[in-house]
Amino acid sequence: MMTAVVSDHESPRAEDPEVRDALAAIPQHPVETTDRDFLGLGLEPAVLEVVARIGFEHPTPIQASVIPDAVAGKDLIGLAETGSGKTAAFVLPIVQRLRRGRGVRGLIVSPTREIALQTKAFLDLFRKSRLRVNSVCLIGGVKIGPQFDQLRRDPDVLVVTPGRLLDHSERGTVSLGGVEELVLDEADHMLDLGFMPQIQRIVSQLPRQRHTMLFSATMPPPIERLAQRYMKDPLRIDLSPKGAASGIEHRLYLVDEKDKKRCALTLLEKVPGSTLVFTKRRSDAEWLCRVLERGEHSVARIHSDRSQRHRVAALESFRAGRHRILVATNIAARGIDVVGIEHILNYDLPDTPEDYIHRAGRTARGAAEGVVSSIGTWLDKSLIRQIETALGHPLPRCEADGVAPYREMQSLQERRRRSPLRR
Ligand code: AMP
Question: In this structure, are residues 247 and 368 in contact, taking their beta carbons and an 8 Å threshold?
Fold first, then answer.
């Protein structure tokens, strides 16, 4: 089903102070909404009451497309970016469908602790409503003891990261035999993180008769296979951007491997504004932070070696503007949903063109403008070509002060094509 035309950008306008407090745990930023109404999506009055209290006036495109089929119990794959309103797209149907019964009936699997906590915060808005949905968040990086107590309080829905859920199921503190609703959120990121074997173990513990929804920003073949295996004739709802947003200026710095660090430091000095840096390796993230701190830059970092407390604190201080720069490894970066990022610096290019577009989407949200700087070496040549094809234009080559650019060799074919004396 197609959504209606996107009409404007909205932020929720919750009047109820309790709801406002709950929403504070979820990064708030304006999203594109449709001109449709929540009323026509098949949601029951008890769910619509909470939607109204939250202050959502119109559904976002992914919500308008997903909710009617999800409410009807159709398996589906939603292709949509972080920050598109995906959480409500699966939470609203789930809370409606789980109205009857007892025990753990809903399972939402997230790749990162941050995303799991945000989903749990959204679910909490339904706890005090007529729906009385009780949920528990089972994530790693925090003590397991309090989670045992929470599990004893008879939750309806679990929001989990894969490792910690398996930990509980091995200890026998959780049983998944009654799960009716399964959501695999940010499935492509779970793949990046190597979670697929764990997902398979989790799904093998679930009843075959269930409703499954999978969300992903991209659809690489392993995700496609996962979907085929675990879903019944899924509907595919594709709202992934077909190119990067229009307000983005792309800059490519081709350098020798040995010059990457100097190039990154120069760019971080030269390009002002709030900056998110992506590195592949934790060691590069650590190095960059240390050097920047020595140069009196205000910088925070987020990667999987850091405790949950540190990761949350880093994200909070970046979000609040106390740190201008946030350095993140690929892995930790998915949960990052921050308004007003002006500069994305790819210290390492991502593995796929889809990921490049996804990263670029972190800046230039809505009508804003942003710069995406990427540092590449000759090893990235084929990937760069793929990114250019996906964007539909070449990445402008740029030079950083004091860093010698790597000169691209043109292939014989290219030289012939560009030569005025073409034979
Ligand atoms: P999500 O992609 O679920 O993380 O949502 C991104 C942001 O959009 C969050 O700040 C939500 O509170 C907000 N949001 C989601 N749906 C709507 C809506 N229908 N109207 C206004 N804001 C929304």
Answer: yes
pLDDT tens for 327-352 read 988 766 665 667 778 899 999 999 88
SS3 251: strand
Say yes or no: CB of residue 399 within 6 Å of ligand 1.
no
Ligand 1: centre distance to CA 275 (Å): 23
- Ligand 1, residue 23: give the atom nearest the CA: 12
Nearest residue to 207 via CA among 232, 247, 177: 177
| 343-346 sheet: strands from edge to edge | 248-254, 370-376, 343-346, 275-279, 325-329, 299-302
CA dihedral (55, 60, 65, 66) positive or negative: negative
d(CA 28, CA 25): 9
Which two three-digit tokens encode residue 323?
């740190």
Q: Which of 3, 6, 13, 31 should be mutated for ligand 1, with most atoms under 8 A from CB?
A: 31
262 or 224: which carries more pLDDT confidence? 262
Question: Does 12 sit in the ligand 1 pocket, CB within 6 Å?
Answer: yes
Angle formed at CA 43 by CA 38 and CA 49, multiple of 5 degrees: 75
Ligand 1 pocket residue status of 84, Cβ below 6 Å:
yes
Nearest to 64 by CA among 136, 132, 5: 5
